[in-house]
Queue: 2 jobs
Job 1
Amino acid sequence: MYILLLVGYPFFLALYFSLSSVTVAGGDNGYVGLSNFLQLGEDPQFWTAFLNSWVFTFVGEIGKAVLGISLAFLLLALLREARSRFGRGSVWVIRGLIMIPWTMPISLAIWGWKWMYDPQFSVINRVLGDWLHVMQHPYPDWLGDPLFTRIAIVAVIIWKGFPFTAVIVLAGLTSIPQDIFDAAKVDGAGWLRTWHYVITPMIAPILFIGLIFDVTYTLADVTIVYLLSNGGPYGTTEILPTIAYHTGIQGGNLSHGAADALVLFPFLLIAMVFFLRLLYRRQEA
Amino acid sequence: MSAQAGARRPIAATGRRPINWRRTRRLTGLMVALLFFLFLAFFPIFFMIHGAFVADYDLIDPSVSPFWFSRPLTLTHLTYLFDHTNFVVWAKNSAVVSGAVVAITLVVCLPGGYALARLRFAGAQNIGIAIFMTYLVPPILLFLPLVQIVGNVFNLLNTKWALVLVYPTFTIPFCLWLMMGFFRRIPIEIEEAALVDGCNRWQAVWHVVLPVSVPGILTAAIFAFTLSMQDFIYALVMVSPSAEKVLTIGIPTELIRGDVFYWGELFTAALIPAVVVATLYNFFLDYFVEGITGGAIK
């Protein structure tokens, strides 16, 4: 009941907000149908945010996959080595250190990044530019230039998420018996083929659930963008959650804010349906 | 446990010959890769630690390496936090909020999880899944209406109790799911044995089931804690008086004044809770993974 009240009721209220015209100041002007959504469609700011949301998530997901899967195999190999050599404790400590980006609350860990991107004292610019001379003057203004700000945000998204990808993939890998790897090897399958034909089909459900989780989380996360760039410069790095905040809370236009956020919902719904189907299929098997 | 338990068979020891070059090469490769990932994970944190201890001028002096220091290391950032900011108040608020959230979560999830795992009423399974689904409804969809509800219905806006009220929306679904899994793994036979020995159902749960599910309860508590420490959006929109703020929101709103970043204080203030949360989280990481993938592995 508690859940129903605290999630269900607000959710319908959000739906209602988005379909009517509510502002903090002016009260409620009643049902206005889909006009909030239609107005969104005409707002270039909305499309920027929409596009950014997807680009950040998509590019971030690719980065996380590449780093996370490599890390998972590394940890697997280490675990196997460690059993005969150093004992599990050492691997546990190492894993703990590598997991830091995921386990630390991002709203706290992000200050390290903020400092690295600082317009005046950016550590990145000092190392790559002043020391290694890889970059020429003028150095990138990491949080002041639309392109570099996007890169900066995606970098943090990837940094935050790759350990999660790694533990999910690792959970899948360790559920596969060693015999199957051996069999694949005997049959002459290379690394890529083993991954594609043997490992992926076996751990697909786990990968998929991990992916759903991560996409949902990344799409809906406001913290990284809010604290790094707050949508700037000039609104070029807004994402749907941040415009929902800006219009809904700071602009006081609850209806538009709710509509901004609800645009995400159909996609989350699709993710949920996939998730459910996976669960049920598993139960039948 | 899944990560460790999975490597079932040890690779046969190949180190019998004096020097095994292939193995050495392989190990070196592993170590290099490991260092790469350690570096990747750690470098932003390094700058936070560095900045927390060096003098302010060292941070902005171009002649000083950004990795090192020239003036003596200092604890002034720490003492400044304690003496001139509300850091202690925020930390207390964070503790109170998280503590209350943990309590609420457990009160709901223990009986709830047990009921969903054991009682075979129609659709128990579906209810469990439905509740877990609500975990996938992110705060960003709910925060606007919740602000209204908390403000108009409960009149708790701008107090930390607003957060106590809303955090369970994401801790309960996840912890309920975790507890359900835990209770399910406890064999029903031990309860039946207790019933046969003359306990009633309540006593069977209290004396037999609860003691063996302590690890599960602990896990649920830790996750309720870490999840509520990770929230940002609710704290941002619901609480603005300094004395009611929690850590995650007190730091960016009061250690940045206008354009001036109090870097040293910022890093120190962020590191303390971050290290606590990360450590706790790590102890229970395996359960977290299991909670997410649980439905898929078995």
Note: Chain B touches chain A through 92 residues (CB under 8 Å).
Job 2
Amino acid sequence: MIVIKHGESDWSMPIQRYSRRLNVLEATRERMVFIFDSFEQIIVSISGGKDSTCMAHLALSEAQRRGRKIGLHFLDEEVVYESTVEQIEYLMGLFPENVAKIWLQIEFRLTNATSVEDGQLICWEAGKHKLWMRPKKPYAIQHRMWSEESQTVRNKNKGFGFYDVIENFERCYNGAAFLVGLRAAGESPNRWRAVVKNPVHIADRDVYWGTKKDKNYSLYPIYDWNFHDVWKYVYDEGLRYSKVYDWQFRKGYSINQMRVSSLIHERAFKSICDLPEFEPKTYNRLCKRIKGIALVQETGKSAKLFACRKLPKNYRSWIAFRDFLIQTHPDQERVHLFVERYQRHLTNEYVARQQCRQLLLNDYENNLPIDNKPDPREALIQYYDEVL
Amino acid sequence: MIRIDTKEQFREMRKELTTEYVVSKTHGKIPVPCCNTILVKTSLVVANLYNPNFVSDDKMELLKRSILDNGFCFPVVAIWDDDQQLFVVIDGFHRRIIGGSEWLDFDYIPIAVLNHNITKRMAATVQFNKARGVHQVDLDADVVRAMIEQGLSEDEISQRLGIDLETVHRYKQITGVAELFKNVEYSRSWEMVEDGREGS
């Protein structure tokens, strides 16, 4: 974690200071007391991962102590590990007296990096219930809680996506606290500083671990936890956690790389490589649900195809490979999105390699943006030309 | 059992080779070439040039171990190549290598002979390589645990299953990841504050 010192500039920067008195668990229990004192309505976002499991347990323990009820909110992307579903069911059933189940299973668009034909997956798409990864939960919220007219969409090109659901969902509340298991130690320091740049004012206190969103607050009560703190808490409290972590551990993933995420996002689709070994039934369902899965499973780890690190041997340059990919792109309706975007870019091998990756991942949404700059290799060559 | 020592011998008896079959209720007669396995002089069987399958060294050791423990259970699948006047492997390339002079140096190799043209051969190789299962991590771990209970050492397990010691170690973890952290201390808490203010 970077400690930023107060500079000469006239705008003040908050600095990070360690507590002499409290460890992260004690501090978070105090934060929970503060949250419960300050808000009537508390909704905990859970993902099935270890961080939100740990945070939900801390919040639920406080709710139980006070005999109060809080919401557990899971936005179900449909294309998830079965172990994730089991983990959500476990958390929802842990303190039945204190939980309002907010399991959201509604239609929205997910980026699908695994298939050129199905560029986006519409999860829980109406009329396709026979193809869904699993049936909807009887007690889940199966329809939008807001009207068609009031619904907002951030990016018309991408359509109604994950973050749009969150935004519209949160707008259904007034004065609520949404607890999110974001950890600064797991995020890049810069991103964390962007989150906490401005404190929010709650009950006469400046709170540096939250943000205000319209009428509500998003709060990050475990922001200062490290991954080992989370695991210790899970162990000490005897909590169940997603089996995916144990599988990943056995497969040799490093402890702080282990993720339980959606299965088809650009940054997550490598997890499909190991899926047949983890959850063969989920893998079978996924192959029926989405085109292209089998190819990703076989090649996802191979540098040549999706990672795009090695130029295929039949091409002289990344630029040539890029032009080939554009000419032969199977999705002629969207290929202009790439062409128009690339016209604004520099022409060099460094940029072209990234463009190839976008094309192979069919990332017309530009989720993995191109670092558009002169080829660092060319600068290096020029430097040596001059000095030698 | 038919033993083939020379090309001439195979050319002569070639016409007489028959193939057993079984009958599928949905697809009719299906040949069963493995019932007509012949033993062929190792030097008459050569690799194909297009096999994309790669077997790592530790898996080769495991294959050798398997042949020593269980015998040669599956014939190498091959065709007779009229140009080369040799048998060319379609499936079982690595079993052929194990039978070669660098490993077990067999006198004969069991082969099942198919009658495929080149396109069909290439397709067959890929089908053989890919149409196989993977081990579920969970079940693999169960096998390791069972072997430990049967009194095998970690070294023996590593040798017999062809997995390295670290993997045996990981598989042994019965209780899982959380257990690894039981003895750590919680980190110090920290907060963001405006510079110069008193903290707790």
Note: The mean pLDDT of chain B is 83.
